[in-house]
Specification:
single chain, alpha/beta, four-stranded antiparallel beta sheet, about 25% helix, about 30% strand, globular
Length: about 240
Amino acid sequence: VSADTHLDEVKAAVRGPVGNHVKLKLSRTGIDSTLEFEIRREVIHLPSVTWHIAPEDANIGIINVHIIAESTIDEIENAITQLQNDGTRKYILDLRDNGGGLLSAGVDTARLFLKDGIIIQQQYRGQAVETFRMTKPGSLSNLPLVILINHNTASAAEIIAGSIQSHGRATLIGENSFGKDSIQLIFDLDDGSSLHITAAKWWIPGLSPPVNEGGLQPDILVENGEAQIDLILNTAVDYLQEQ
């Protein structure tokens, strides 16, 4: 393994059946001896949400959502509780580089922050349109909130950001999102590969332009580019401080 080795190659080399062992030999620059480890393979459950207090303002909590999973709803509520216990009162939901996940979890995550109305509609080929609505106000529907998005915010993450934007619930800050409005079915094959079939489309009523036409349009456009500082996050902190 060198600095030029692709991460996928490394993953393929170390992954394997749960319970089996993998041997690793590590060398370090400037040291002649090597280290050897034998590690038992296990399923490692990673959190979908992390959080911290903004260094610039102890009143602002930042919730980073890395993927949309079944546990995301509970993890966000727990993050808010912990941040409130630490004295925060305003919040940044960071969906940047979140490629999505479970559609149902995306809808339920949006429900946390909304009070009423339609979240999304979806349609499978040859079937009637299905509408996902709010049935009661979400537990976090009154929190001061902004949402961060970028070009890698996609799919279920766009459902969260887009539905919240369409209700005027929170300001979107950052770059246009990816623009993925399809629902895919995934079939695992005997050789370890998988088949992905687009089976349905979803959309957010009243959102203009639609998600599939250039992605979500942020309310405050900020291009981070090659900047050494996080301009998008800094803009969000400044915005919340003014509210």
